[in-house]
Hints:
By secondary structure, the protein is mainly α. It folds into two domains: 1-70 and 87-113; 115-149, no CATH class. It contains seven helices and no strands. The chain has helices at 2-20, 27-46, 48-64, 89-112, 115-123, 128-131, 136-148. Helix 1 crosses helix 3 and helix 2 packs antiparallel against helix 4 (89-112). It is elongated.
Amino acid sequence: MSFVVTRNAMSIIKPVSVKLQYTSYDIVKAYNKVEEVVKELQAVRTEESVLHSWYSQAESLASKVDVVPQVPRTASRQQHRENIEHSSTEEYYRRSIILPLLDNLIQQINDRFGSTQMIVAKLIKLVPSVITTFTELSYEDATCRLIAE
Length: 149
């Protein structure tokens, strides 16, 4: 289950990850792409059909190796892991693996590419070496956008 969820989540992140490795990629465009990825991850988190398809993929992968997804037994007094309330195996894995992984991924991206970092990224346009690359029209446009934001 964890493998399928991680693979699907990383497939959402991979395009922006590849672009972030380019040295010539504009940092403001990169932050905009990161914001799009976070929105997409948040949309996936709330979309029942996507989560169900991820579980179905995990089930089919498990059936290929003769494994039946089961919920671990529930103890009356649990010490080493949570007793997660569930009505089905799918719901258990959604609450115990899928949602925490997506939440953690979104949180980590927000920590690394948060609003403070975005402000700093926009201020980099004020560095003289960057300003000299602007034409007069693009400089005025960039300055107006920077002030408006």
